[in-house]
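Can't paste images in this forum, so I'm doing it all in text. The chain is below; anyone willing to post the predicted C-alpha cells underneath?
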Amino acid sequence: MKILKIGGSVITDKSGYRKAIPERIEKIAKAVASIWKKGARDLVLVHGAGSFGHALVIKHGLKDGVKNTAQKLGYADAHAACCELSSMVVCALIANGAPAVSIPPAIVISLKDKRIYRFDTKIVNDYLQSGYLPVLFGDMAPDSVLGGYPCSGDQIVAYLGKGADFVLLATNVDGVLDDAGKVIPLICRENFPEISKHLKETPNDVTGGMRGKIGELMALDTLSYIVNAGHPERIDAIFSGKPALCTKVVPNGEKSSGRTFMPGASMRILRQSRPAE
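Text version of the structure:
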C-alpha cells in the first residue's frame, strides 16, 4: 500500500471559512488520477480538512471535546463541511478518470482521548482489492473519553502507514526547511532531536501543524516524503522511484531504504517559512 496525503492548505484557503481552491483541487486530482492510471492501484489518498475543518472546530469550541447539545450540532456541522470538501476532491478525481470513493472517518474510526482506538480498515482494503481509489480525510470522530474530537488526516496516515511501502505528504512547502529557508533533505532518528526543538505548531491549526506531521511520521517504521503539492511532477517522480526535491523521513536510519532523494541543505536549525497544513 502507498499512501498520499494532500494537505488542507493545498486545496483550501485556511485563512477563510469553508473556502476551497477549485483550481488546485483540479490540478492535484489530475496528477493523482495520472498516477493511478499508470498502475498505482494500491494507492490510498488522504486529504486534510483545511478551512472546512479547522475553522469550524474553533467556531464551535470542539478543541476540548463534545460536552453539550450545542457542541453536538457543531460536531455535525464540522463533519458535514469535511464531507463537502471531500466530495469536491472525489468528483475531480472521477472527472479525471480515477474511480475514487470517499470513506468518511466519522463512520469507520473511533477515538479514545484524541487518538485512534478503532479503525475499520477492512472497508479500505475491500475497495482497494475491488479496483477503487479510497479517499479518507480529516474529519470529526466519536471519542469515548471526550464525546467527539477532530481526527486529523495525519493521524489517519500514521495508522494506515504502518507497513505501507511509503507515505508521501504533499504540503504547501518544498519540505521541512532550515533556518535559511532551504529544504532539509533527510530526517532520521539521529538528527530528529535537534530538529524537533525548532518545529513550531501552526496558529489555528488544531492538528499541530508541521510539528504534528513529523511526530506522526517518526512514530512509523515507514519511509516517508514531504513534498510541495504545487509541483505535481515531484509527486509523480517519487511514485516512479525518481529523485525529487523533498524532505525524506527515515525513522530507522538511511539504511532502511534504497530510495533516492535530491541532495539539499546541510542540517541547520529549522524554521518554517510559512504555515504548513
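Confidence is low (pLDDT under 50) at residues 255-277. The domain at 2-256 is CATH 3.40.1160.10 (Carbamate kinase).
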